[in-house]
Amino acid sequence: MISIQGVDFSKILTRYDIKLQNAETPEEAAKKLLPADPVFKDVAEKVLFMKFKDVGPAVQKALASKDPLDVINEGLVAGMEIVAKLYAEHVYYLPEIMMAAKTMEIGIAIAEKQVPGGRSTKGTVIMHAAEGDPHDIGKNIAAVMMRAAGYTVIDMGRDVPVKDAVAKCIEVKPLFMSGTALMTTTMSAFPAEAKLMQEAGLNTPLMGCGGAVNREFANSYDLGIYSRKAPQTPIIAQKILDGYDWKKIREEWDDIVGGN
Predict the structure, then answer these.
(1) pLDDT at res. 140
(2) Residue 151 in contact with residue 175, Cβ under 8 Å?
(3) Are 207 and 243 contained in the same domain?
């Protein structure tokens, strides 16, 4: 019989996401990442710690001395960016993402009223889950991060027919359209969409995402680009905003997403 006496089990069967979660708490991350300005820091903390009942008064107080756009970008969005970082590092999970997003949206709604003409948008994107696919959690998280980054998101929901997604893309002419597929049986929707988009004369990048999709598949059809996880989506979006087409996104993908 094999003896296990003296075996150090800490070196095996280790869940590194839990190890990281224990290594850095949200409070510890906040010390390094929160804005230095005490007014913006107070607002960002309300988002980071999901204080949706307190964010309104904090934003109102900030608006007494700060520009409303700065309150949004340097306070509310800054807090959400920390949430995104903690999510990427498996410190925060879906419930925290959604509650923080709700907190941020409450604050933005208040601050936007003080912006003459309303808050401008960087661009419009379309997001959907593939035809036949009922899974939309990943899409929802990416949509939150895109809105936090200043984009207008048209969320078509889940199980969106190919023709409906393409029709909306023709109508809106977005910066890009993204689709998520968690099942291998539904990811074939993306090349079908790309074909119809090209037939309509569109050169709009079509971002493939979700558990069933990998980079090789997303690059296998024209217009296709890839986002492996939600925090990469705003980074890729910025490059498209800077003038990158789908071919250049593919060529420079590793440099664009870096360690994100």
Answers:
(1) 87
(2) yes
(3) yes
Locus of tokens 């109508």: 171
> pTM of this prediction?
0.74
CA separation for the pair 28, 186 (Å, rounded): 41
Q: What is the pLDDT of residue 8?
A: 59
Range of the domain at 47: 15-112
Tokens of 93: 């999970």
231 and 133 together in one domain: yes
Q: Are residues 129 and 226 in the same domain?
A: yes
User: Which tokens is 137 given?
Assistant: 């959690």
Whole-number pLDDT of residue 152: 93
CATH number reported for the structural domain that contains residue 44 in this entry: 1.10.1240.10
10: helix, coil or strand?
helix
Q: Specify the number of domains making up the chain.
A: 2
Q: Are residues 186 and 216 in the same domain?
A: yes
* pLDDT tens digits, 28-45: 777 788 999 999 999 999
Residues near 239 by beta carbon (within 8 Å), at least 6 away in sequence: 248, 249, 252, 256
Report, as ranges of residue numbers, the positions in the chain whose pLDDT lies below 70: 1-24, 259-260
DSSP track, 156-203: --SS--HHHHHHHHHHH--S-EEEE-SSTTTTTHHHHHHHHHHHTT--
For residue 148, the domain's CATH number is 3.40.50.280
